[in-house]
Amino acid sequence: MTMYRYLTCLPPFGAVYGEDLKFNSQLANAVAAASKASVPKSLVEAAIARGQGRSATGAQLEPMTLEVLMPPNIALIADIETDNKTRTLHDLKYVVKKAGGVVGGTAFYFSRRGRAVFKPKAGGGGGGPTLSDVLDHFVEHEGAEDVEELPDGGFLAWTQPASVAAITDAVSSKFGLEVLESDIIWAANEDTTVAVDSHRSAESLDALFAAMREFPEVKAVFANIRQGTISDEEWDRIERHIDV
């Protein structure tokens, strides 16, 4: 996750604590990290505004989705927040056409799912919860689907979309876990995923994703792709742009 995307993923904290850094430690930490990473001040301010549900000019943001088909059978969905749907759609359609894709219905390739990523809090010492501990508590909640243990000792939880906020809060509070992500995503249906096998496809996707990410209105991009016969380097260039 880029620093800009991290900042824009703070609306729950902004809604409760606002954009005053004195009263919002989560936001203050993110801004400090952005400054250390030399993120331009204008981008930081725009990201904070978007976390409050408005553009940098103060206009109210509205959600929309963009559904895209890329040859041979690759489906994309982008989650967008914009203060001008007509302008944003026009600009992104141009980007898609330039990359060789078309705007068209792709939602049936995906399912809406809640996703939360947790990690043990720094300085918490050993003896953190096991997967069994988390799972036993997790399944007690309505809308819970599955929990996976991550290589770094954290946990990935899947839920029904309407339950993700409540379950995230319950699990993090119960076990003292830090929440890295808590959102609703478009998860590709397993039987519709497509392997990226050619260098040409990899280049086209990398170019499209990079161009879409230039728009601050684009909050997340999802695709029904998996690594095929392309190299790890080519796959890494693609994967860095997508959210699942």
Question: What are the salient characteristics of this protein?
Answer:
10 strands; alpha+beta; single chain; disordered N terminus; 9 helices; Transcrip_reg_TACO1-like_dom3; globular; 244 residues; YebC-like; four-stranded antiparallel sheet; Integrase-like_N
Report the C-alpha radius of gyration, rounded: 19 Å
The termini sit apart by: 11 Å
Strand content: 25-35%
Using the alpha-carbon principal axes, give the shape.
globular
Q: What structural class do helix, strand and pairing data support? A: alpha+beta
Q: Could you name the ranges where pLDDT drops below 50 across 5 or more consecutive residues?
A: 1-17
The string of secondary-structure elements, in order, is HHHHEEHEEHEEHEEHEEH
**How many strands, what sense, and barrel or not for the largest sheet?**
4 strands, antiparallel
**Helix content, binned percent:** 25-40%
Q: Tell me how many strands there are.
A: 10
Overall pLDDT level: 84
